[in-house]
Design goal:
Elements: H1 4-16, H2 27-34, H3 39-44, E1 61-65, H4 74-87, E2 95-102, H5 106-110, H6 113-122, E3 127-134, E4 139-140, E5 153-157, E6 159-161, E7 176-180, E8 183-184, E9 188-190, E10 196-200, E11 203-204, E12 209-211, E13 217-225, E14 229-230, E15 238-247, H7 266-274, E16 290-295, E17 306-308, E18 313-317, E19 324-326
Parallel strand pairs: 1-2, 2-3, 3-5, 4-6, 5-7, 6-8, 7-10, 8-11, 9-12, 10-13, 11-13, 12-14, 13-15, 15-16, 16-18, 17-19
């Protein structure tokens, strides 16, 4: 019992000596730990000791995050981010996250985001997240093109995309694409490698065509605007589609099979243009195994039966159950 105070004294001496057990870990392990922090917090560790002075420069992630950090204004955020990218080593990026919210000057808040995206692509980023919210307008990425052999996952929130931005023919490693609260003005979403596509609460301002032959899961939830055209998806296993009240493909006069005769009906005007035999979704989903369709509006359905060849599980909740032929 007499030795215990002496042991306690030794421990206090070790602490007083400032022995850094964490700093003795390998650089790679410390950089992985720092990669979980917002970049501003990771940079602040440089003041801990000489051991930590340059560790942040080779962290395999960039997290520009105004949600968890206090910046005086968008200029302060941009200044920090620009200095960060200028001073860090050009090591490959596993993950880049740009998470910014400002209710004021959108031009200042969005001024450098395209530059930051190009930097991430040049550093072979594998996971890219762009979550930007502004009360005045959405960030527009229509003039940005992603040409990278390394990008595997792309997540967008509250941005506007159009032009060739959603043409991923130059992204052969892309597997996951997730878009929430985005405005889509692109006529085509194409990728030969994409396995998982999620579009939640989006605004589809035009009739987009989705070409993704390797798709395994598809989720379209509560979007506004036009239902996309789906090209054949032979690898599709699970599909979830929920149509809200703001879907344009509905008959305002309760004619579920199209062509109610009104020139003002958006849903029926599409049927007139493409023909009554065409179905926007069901023909493209004919190879899926598990299909869930939920509609809160009066969707325009095809007048002819649609053949679903490999459906194992089917849930259809709508105002009208269409004629379906199931061949197992």
């Amino acid at each position: 019992m007499a030795e215990r105070p002496e042991d306690d004294g030794d421990k206090k001496a070790d602490l007083a000596g400032g022995e850094d057990h964490i700093g003795a870990l390998p650089d790679v392990l410390l950089q992985q730990v720092l990669s979980l922090l917002p970049s501003r917090q990771a940079v602040r560790t440089c003041v801990l000791s000489t051991r930590w002075r340059t560790l942040w420069k080779s962290v395999p992630s960039v997290r520009i995050n105004s949600a968890g950090e206090l910046y005086r204004n968008p200029q302060a955020l941009s200044k920090f981010a620009n200095h960060l990218l200028l001073l860090r080593d050009r090591t490959p990026l596993h993950e880049c996250e740009i998470n910014s919210y400002y209710g004021g000057d959108s031009d200042e808040a969005f001024q450098y985001i395209e530059l930051w995206l190009r930097y991430a692509v040049s550093c072979q980023v594998r996971v890219l997240r762009v979550l930007v919210k502004n009360e005045l307008k959405d960030l527009c990425l229509s003039n940005v093109s992603l040409h990278t052999q390394h990008l595997a996952s792309l997540e967008l929130c509250s941005v506007e995309v159009g032009g060739h931005f959603l043409d991923f023919s130059s992204c052969p490693a892309l597997k996951v694409l997730k878009m929430e609260h985005c405005k889509l003005s692109a006529l085509r979403i194409s990728s030969k490698s994409l396995n998982h596509l999620i579009i939640n609460y989006g605004n589809l301002g035009c009739r987009a065509r989705i070409s993704a032959p390797s798709l395994i899961t598809l989720e379209l939830d509560e979007f506004t605007g036009y239902t996309p055209l789906l090209e054949p998806m032979p690898s599709l296993i699970r599909a979830f589609l929920r149509f809200g009240e703001n879907c344009y493909d509905r008959c305002d006069n309760s004619n579920y099979f199209g062509d109610c005769g009104s020139q003002l009906c958006l849903g029926c005007s599409f049927i007139k243009y493409y023909g009554n035999g065409d179905c926007l979704l069901l023909e493209g989903l004919s190879g899926t195994e598990y299909l869930e369709l939920i509609s809160q509006s009066q969707l325009v359905m095809p007048a002819t039966p649609v053949v679903l060849c490999h459906v194992v599980g089917l849930l259809f909740i709508a105002w009208l159950l269409p004629i379906l032929t199931l061949n197992h």
